[in-house]
Design goal:
Distance between the termini: 42 Å
Family: Belongs to the LDH/MDH superfamily. MDH type 2 family.
Function: Catalyzes the reversible oxidation of malate to oxaloacetate.
Order of helices and strands: EHEHEHEHEHEHEEEEEHHHHEEEH
GO molecular function: L-malate dehydrogenase (NAD+) activity
Radius of gyration: 19 Å
Enzyme class: oxidoreductase
Helix content: 40-55%
Bound molecules: 1,4-dihydronicotinamide adenine dinucleotide
EC number: 1.1.1.37
CATH class of the largest domain: Alpha Beta
Structural class: alpha/beta
CATH topology of the largest domain: L-2-Hydroxyisocaproate Dehydrogenase, Chain A, domain 2
Strand content: 15-25%
CATH architecture of the largest domain: Alpha-Beta Complex
Largest sheet: 6 strands, parallel
């Protein structure tokens, strides 16, 4: 039996946590022969609810779940963890400006970054889900400089999955036939799902779906506004699909990517594709056979895509300016 992987999940008593924890414990994230220990991190007022989640996890009798550490103490929560999934954050409330939200959540991610650097396992990798996830990731990373920049990620996989399904529905094909869907930039309404480089059965999407007007307009806005549509319909933000995207992201990061394909996750920009160095931006990413990841560097960017990428990157630059004093 392999040694257990320790996985920290913040906001563990929240909506996403309620879908995510059971997927991790059942083996969906790390495979059917990899035991896990879950570190469930919450704020004090949510500890009673977290207690209920712990009871339910126990009641599943998952063979792979070798321990549960529920806590509001960050040192305990991040002690020895190999993965830190930072889901918890404070939602935007009526009347709150973006700057206010960035400031409130920024402070959370300073403390979490520091606690991860101090307590986590030497191989720790961090995936930020709590919004605004790219900039929260930037803040945590800059407050944990002992951890290499290539171990920090922010989630755009839900946008990728949404985009792939919209293309599959339009083309009338199974979603597994859609590949090479890169989401660029920020996980926000400016993100750009790059249909020009996506493929359906290996063919350019624009060959299979010749309606370029639909692709450039309705498709992009449907994906960009999907989160808002779900809130409108459900009265709550997407949670099961977000948890599923967390599972997909981690699986993609630990599994070599199929030859020629790529997936989406936001990483620290080194300036590739003229994306401002230092921000956390989504790119087309590949995982290599040795477990390292790289940006797929051969993806053509035409004028339409360049304009969209510039807009979303500009938003990330603005967000960085708003939290400049939190970057240490
Ligand atoms: P939720 O409000 O149901 O749960 C959030 C949980 O975080 C609560 O239990 C709360 O007590 C906890 N929390 C708040 N501050 C904390 C802190 N300092 N430390 C630990 N826990 C803390 O929210 P939900 O639906 O689970 O969403 C979580 C986050 O994920 C939100 O920011 C949401 O916007 C974001 N999200 C991101 C997506 C993405 O694609 N990147 C997709 C969907 C949601």
């Amino acid at each position: 039996m392999k040694a257990p992987i320790r996985v920290a999940v913040t906001g563990a008593a929240g909506q996403i946590g309620y879908s995510l924890l059971f997927r991790i414990a059942s083996g969906s994230m790390f495979g059917p022969d990899q035991p896990v220990i879950l570190h469930l991190i919450e704020i004090e007022p949510a500890l009673p609810a977290l207690g209920g989640v712990v009871m339910e996890l126990q009641d599943c009798a998952f063979p792979l779940l070798k321990g549960i550490v529920p806590t509001a103490n960050l040192d305990e929560g991040f002690a020895g963890v190999n993965w830190a999934l930072l889901v918890g954050s404070v939602p935007r409330k009526a009347g709150m400006e973006r700057k206010d939200l960035l400031g409130i959540n920024g402070k959370i991610f300073i403390g979490q970054g520091k606690a991860i650097e101090k307590n986590a396992a030497p191989d720790v990798r961090v995936l930020v889900v709590g919004n605004p996830c790219n900039t929260n990731c930037l803040i945590a990373m800059n407050n944990a400089r002992g951890i290499p920049a290539n171990r920090w990620f922010a989630m755009t996989r839900l946008d990728e999955n949404r985009a792939k399904m919209q293309l599959a529905l339009k083309a009338g094909v199974d979603v597994t036939r859609v590949s090479n869907l890169a989401v660029w930039g920020n996980h926000s309404a400016t993100m750009y799902p790059d249909f020009y480089n996506a493929r359906i059965d290996g063919r350019h999407v624009t060959e299979v779906i010749p309606d370029v007007h639909w692709l450039q307009n309705d498709f992009i806005s449907t994906v960009q506004q999907r989160g808002a549509s779900i809130i409108k319909a459900r009265g709550l933000s997407s949670a099961a699909s977000a948890a599923n995207a967390v599972v997909d992201t981690v699986r993609s990061l630990v599994t070599p990517t199929t030859e020629g394909d790529w997936y989406s996750v936001a990483v620290h920009s080194e300036g590739d594709y003229d994306v401002e160095k230092g921000i956390i931006s989504s790119f087309p990413i590949r995982t290599n056979a040795d477990g390292s990841w790289e940006i797929a560097k051969w993806v053509p960017v035409g004028d339409f895509s360049r304009e969209k990428i510039t807009a979303t990157v500009n938003e990330l630059k603005e967000e960085r300016e708003l939290v400049r004093e939190l970057l240490g």
